[in-house]
Amino acid sequence: MMVSYRLYWTLWMFSCFGQYLGQDLQFPESANGVVGGSVVLAPDNPPSTSILIAQWFFATTPIIAVGSGVATVNPAYEGRISFDSNTLALTLQNLRLSDSGIYRLTLQTSAGETLAGETSLQVFENVSNVRLIGPEEPLIEGESSANITSEGTGTITSVQWMKDNSPLSPSNSIIFSPDNRSVSISPVQRSDSGEYQCTYTNPVSSGTAKLDLIINYGPEDVFIKGQDVVDLGVRVSLSCSANSEPSASFRWKFNETDTNVTTDTFTIDETDFTHSGDYDCTAWNSVTNRNASQRHALLVKVGGGGGGLTTGAIVGIVIGVLVAFSGICGLIVYLIKTKKIPMLNKEQKGQGSGAQSRQEPDSHYEEMTDIQKTRGDGAVRAKSESTIYVNFSYEENEYENVKH
C-alpha cells in the first residue's frame, strides 16, 4: 500500500536532514554493474534494533522510503527496484549508464538513533566487437612499417597488448598511440613476426582480438649438402637449403650452364667423369625479390672401395711428388759439381766408314803409362780395343786402370 505524497515528502525532508547526522553504516567501497543487468546494494553491518524508517537515495534523489511496513517508491524507479527489510538491501534492475553514482541509506531506529552510510555504483557497457586492423601489403624486413589499430564497442577502461602471449612493450621501433589503441612498428624485423593480441577490458567484461603479422625476409645462408668426391657409376644427391620467408625457390647450374632443375635437390642417377665440376644453387624469394647463391665442387674418380681422396689430398700428393723430384735433381747436380760422382771417360769412337777408325788415347792414358813406368811395374801394357779406362779423382791425385 502506497502512502500519500504528503507523507512521502515529509519523510523525504526528514531523511534529508538525517543524511548529515552520521555515517555509521559500512558498505563495500564500490559496486559494478553492466547495462541491462542488476546489482544489489546492502550495508555490511545492519543494526540489531528495529527500524522505524529506512530510505534509499541516489545522490539527493529519493528512491524508496519504508516506514511501518509501508513502501513509497519514486515513480522514476517503478518496476526497477526491490527492497529487503531484513538486510536493508536495495536491488536495482535493468541498469542504465545513468545509474552510475553515489547511493545513500538512512535509518531511524526504535531507539531513536539516526544511522547513515553510502556506497557507489559504476555501470558499464559490455565490451564487444573488438578487432585489429593491420597492414594489407606484404611486409619486408628492414624496409616496411606496420601499423596495427584496435577497435571495439562498450565501456573501455584499459587496453592491453600482447605478442605471442607475452606483454608487448614500447621500444625504439615499437611506438604506442596516446590512447594505447594502436601500435606502430618501423622498420619491421623478422623478430616482429608473430601473433598480436589486443584486449579491451572493464570491471564487468572484456574482449580480445588477434592478428598474425608476417615479416618477409631472405633468402640468406644458402647451403648445399652433399659429397665432394664420389666414385664412378654411383648415385649422387645434392640438397640445397636457405633461410627465407616465404620459402625460397631454387635453380641449379652446372659449370655456369642452366640445368632446368628447379627443386631443392639435384640428383645424378649414375656418375661419370663428365659430372665433375661446379654446381651452383640459386635461392630466390618471390616476395622480397632477392636471391642468393652457393657453389659446390664435385669430383668423380675411379672407384676403389671406401671413400676416395679429397681434392685437397690429391693436390697435396702431387705437390709432394714434385718437391721430391726437384730435391733429387738438385742433389745430383750438387754431387756432380763437387766431384763426389766420378766422371766416366770413354773412348770416342769414330763415326766415319774408314778415315777415322780410332782416336789416340787421351792425355790421362798417357799419364797413367808414365806413372807405371816410373813405378817400375814392368812391361808396358799395350792398348787394345777391349780396354776401357775410368778416371777416378782422389785427394792423392792417383789413378788406377780398370780393365775389363
In brief:
The chain is built from 3 helices and 26 strands.
Can you walk me through this structure?
This protein has 404 residues and is mainly β. It is built from three helices and 26 strands. The strands form six sheets. Strands 1-9-8-3-4-5 form a six-stranded mixed beta sheet, with helices on one face. It has a five-stranded mixed beta sheet with strand order 20-26-25-22-23, with no helix packed on it. Strand 3 (51-58) and strand 4 (61-67) form a beta hairpin. The longest helix has 27 residues, at 311-337.
Topology of helices and strands:
Layout lengths: L4 H14 L11 E5 L4 E3 L9 E8 L2 E7 L2 E4 L7 E4 L4 E4 L8 E9 L4 E11 L3 E6 L5 E2 L5 E8 L4 E6 L2 E2 L6 E3 L5 E4 L8 E9 L2 E9 L1 E11 L3 E3 L4 E10 L3 E6 L2 E2 L6 E4 L8 E9 L4 E12 L9 H27 L25 H13 L29
Parallel strand pairs: 1-9, 11-19, 20-26
Antiparallel strand pairs: 2-7, 3-4, 3-8, 4-5, 6-7, 8-9, 10-12, 12-16, 13-14, 13-17, 15-16, 17-18, 19-21, 21-24, 22-23, 22-25, 25-26
